[in-house]
Write a structure and sequence with these properties.
With 308 residues, the protein is α/β, with parallel strands linked by helices. The protein has 2 domains: 143 residues, 3-Layer(aba) Sandwich (Rossmann fold); 102 residues, HUPs (Rossmann fold, 3-Layer(aba) Sandwich). The protein has 10 helices and 13 strands. The strands form 5 sheets. Strands 1-2-3 form a 3-stranded parallel beta sheet. Strands 4-5-6 form a 3-stranded antiparallel beta sheet. It has a 3-stranded mixed beta sheet with strand order 10-9-11, with helices on one face. A hairpin with a 4-residue loop joins strand 12 and strand 13. The longest helix has 15 residues. The chain is globular. The two termini are 30 Å apart. The model has no long low-confidence stretch (mean pLDDT 93).
Length: 308
């Protein structure tokens, strides 16, 4: 694997405790860069002031350290506010920003689903201008008008993510009501600001890659290598859902030490033949994506232990 200049990032939201899926994503991101001899960053996505808190951010940092993961640098997304505003200025200068008065209920009434399960935005407010004093004077959410056309992309795992994001999703929100920068814009700006060259993340985020690549192109930001990996799923009624509602890290730590939990995660990913205790650092020398399961794994929590 090439090692020169590789920089990866793990970017968890700080709106709740880490869960097994969070920890697996962190471990795979960390191993992907460590085996290349590169730099791996922790970026705390703390822009959701309503659901997040400094306590949850500290808990995330401490929990990842407890598992045995170390970072070359740690960032808080809220610290990049000036860069986020500069990106909005650039999009406004292109004439692509507009205020949106549509409610979530009105989008649900339209009934058109986007690839990630959200509701596609039909462009209702596209012709609305920004206030005379510019986007900073706007109290409503802001969307960015995406140009039509397919964005070609095949990720490193071979997953074809080519997409016309304007047709598939509609124009995304880039600044929320109340002023918080939205996920897609913050993510691509932060990746560029921090020199990220590799984006390793769960397959649940794959569908959004086209939007992010389009934003990168509009802002003339570099394009990283993408890789999307398996998810840990739980049985939820008659459906499968991401494994996060069943158990969080505080409960896991009552029943597992760090080596045992890391060993289970490595086993669930396919990196070990069993759940023998392991440290992340011990997995680096034989890490290879060819050994990682392609299929999502169903994991059950019995109140004391995780099992496949």
């Amino acid at each position: 694997m090439p090692s020169v200049g590789a920089t990866g990032r793990f970017a968890p939201s700080t709106t709740g405790p880490a869960h097994p899926g969070t920890l697996l994503a962190a471990l795979l991101c960390w191993l992907d860069v460590r085996v290349r001899g590169g730099r791996v960053l922790l970026r705390l996505e703390d822009l959701d002031a309503e659901r997040g808190s400094p306590e949850l951010a500290r808990s995330m940092v401490e929990g990842l350290a407890w598992l045995g993961l170390d970072w070359d640098e740690t960032f808080r997304q809220s610290e990049a506010h000036a860069a986020h505003e500069d990106a909005l200025d650039r999009l406004a200068a292109q004439g692509r920003l507009y205020p949106c008065a549509c409610s979530r209920a009105s989008l649900r009434e339209q009934g058109a689903r986007a690839p990630d399960g959200s509701f596609r935005y039909p462009g209702t407010c596209r012709t609305r201008p920004l206030p005379r004093l510019g986007w900073r004077a706007c109290q409503e959410p802001l969307r960015v008008e995406l140009p039509a056309g397919v964005v070609p992309c095949v990720d490193e795992s071979g997953l074809d993510l080519s997409q016309d994001p304007a047709a598939a999703f509609g124009d995304p929100i880039v600044r929320r009501r109340g002023g918080a920068i939205a996920y897609h814009l913050a993510s691509v700006v932060d990746d560029s600001l921090q020199g990220v060259t590799r984006v390793v993340r769960g397959r649940d985020l794959a569908a959004a890659t086209g939007i992010q690549l389009r934003l990168r192109a509009l802002l003339e930001l570099p394009r990283p290598v993408y890789r999307h990996h398996l998810l840990l799923l739980e049985v939820h009624g008659e459906k499968l859902a991401k494994l996060h509602g069943a158990v969080g890290l505080p409960e896991l730590r009552r029943h597992y030490d760090a080596l045992a939990l890391c060993g289970f995660l490595a086993f669930a990913a396919g990196l070990q033949p069993d759940a023998a205790p392991a440290r992340p650092a011990e997995l680096v020398s034989h890490f290879d994506w060819a050994r990682v399961h392609v299929e999502d794994q169903i994991v059950r929590w019995n109140g004391r232990h995780l099992h496949l």
